[in-house]
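Researcher: First entry.
Model:
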Amino acid sequence: MQQQVLFEDLGVKQYKAVWDYQETLLKKNADIKLLFRYNNPEKEPVLALPTSHHLLFVEHPPVYTLGKNGKPEHVLISEEDRVEKGIEYFQINRGGDITFHGPQQLVGYPILDLEKFKTDLGWYLRSLEEVIILTLAEYGIKGERSFGETGVWIDAHLKGKERKICAMGIKCSRWITMHGFAFNVNTDLDYFKYIVPCGIENKTVTSLEKELGHSVPFDEVKYKVKKNFEKIFDCKLQLN
């Protein structure tokens, strides 16, 4: 059965506010499941449960986020300089290491009940990557996966030329997902100079703008990502 996913474009919004919103959506779904499991100890199918799926699009003001297993030393800028540059910093509960979010970067946060899709985190991450790979293909760019590393890369197998265009990091609780992907569209890549992106040394980051040699209409990219999300997850997005 094709799943319905509630879509919200939050525009430009502070990181902490959206993090809190994700937590609220996840908890609401998790509480529904917890009550169901309590009342149904035999663990009958949950397809009929009133859990809801969400996809949030947002741009954040400049912020560095460090995953739960990340290394603080991968932040190369002093706190004083970071504050002076107006960059926020949060240690958060997703997987992955340090990354940057900022203007003209498309950040997508799917809050999905994977028990209504597929209970396989590897499948889920590869599916998110495929959404971005298909989007890049529409611009004539070959997006790739890098063995042992999440996200989407360009020239992933050419040593010294590997560059990451989309970072990914997720959390999953009771098969409810949160956090997601950060796709560099017309992003100012200078912000990445002050961190070791995703904790991966000797590899660079890039953007759609840098690869094409010109800026790209941000709303156009959003449209393509939404369309490819529906295709890969076999779902229907509807405005929330």
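Researcher: Second entry.
Model:
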Amino acid sequence: MKYAIRYGLFLLTLFFCSSAAIAETESVAERNAAQGFNDTIDRLAPDFVTVSLVVCDPSEVLYSTLGHAALHLQCPVYDLDYIFTYESESVRNRIGTFLRGELKMGMYAFPTDLFLASYRFLGRGVKEYTINLSPRQKQKLWEIMDNHVAEGANLPYDYFHRGCAKSVVRVVHEAIGRTAIHYAPWDDKYTRQTQREIVRNFIEDAPWEEFFMYFLIGIEGDQDYPCEQKIIVPTDLVEVWQKATLGDGQPVLDSTPRVLLEATRHNEGTWCTPLLVSIFLLLFSIISLATAWSSSPLVRKAGTAIDIILVTLYAVAGAGMTYLIVFSGLPCTSWNWLIIPFNILPVIFWHWRRYWAPWYAGLLFLWSIVMAGEFFFGHVLVDWPHILLVLAFAVVLLKQQFLKRLITIANR
């Protein structure tokens, strides 16, 4: 009985080995016939379809501050060469649609030459890295991309959850199915920092983009997410995937890029930064407060003019923040720490400011201290320019509260 079992196992092993050998020696024509193709094209050849991750340089435009990620798919046999990219509808003439959260996005397929021509015009560099998928996975990926293109721009524009890097990760996961991506130990950037901090560190040389990023992204950017979901910057995706492996132990991404376009334009920055502007506005508010002690009507009028400018700027910022949180469907604007200092209520109740101004000014000073002290939360929630602007408005409120008393003292 024991020998019979061993003999049976031997025959079974021989059967599987023979089947594998036959499959390996099966001709391309026979394999194609089994799949319903009547030709000699080897669709399982490694170079039948090629897939690359395309990474485009950042620009000074707000929605391109992080750069861009897309997928480059080619089939040389059929002379197919396309860039598949998630894009939104044009924002340039649809600012209102964007702020209402009604802008749409979807997958688009552009001939590679046409895609590169648009980036050449902007002077932005473009590189690509080969993604090491199996032949079947690459064909599956192309099928998935075609289906997404056919669906059109039917998704709400969501720069936070459907950013280009996250979208690339999502469709690659669809294509590889049960094959897992094995990530190397995650850097501290992904385990300890929030998505807001990751973005902030990347755009620290673009101060105005950083300023508006804090205004647009609420506390959703400060919540904890799995490390893979924190890959929001295209260059971070390159770094992570070059260290990650697929089921066969092969790196997800090649280490050597191919340069498709050299950058010809570079952002040189600007001397007029949000921090500099906020410092000047805070100084102006202090100067305005000092003018209340002057006996000169002209000096006091100058102080009043400064107050009007500061209150007007505050009203615009407060109206914008109130709209984003209360009325807009824009992603990540359900709550923002900036709504405490920047809201429309002080403007509405400005006539009765002598009743609430000292209390609200105290709240603003307390808010500024808490937000300036990282140790309260362990993360950066608000940038310094916004904190200084809040302090400037708090000084204006204190002056409005005690203005009559100061003028009386000055006239004695």
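Model: Note on the second entry: The chain has three domains: 2-34, 50-261, 274-411.
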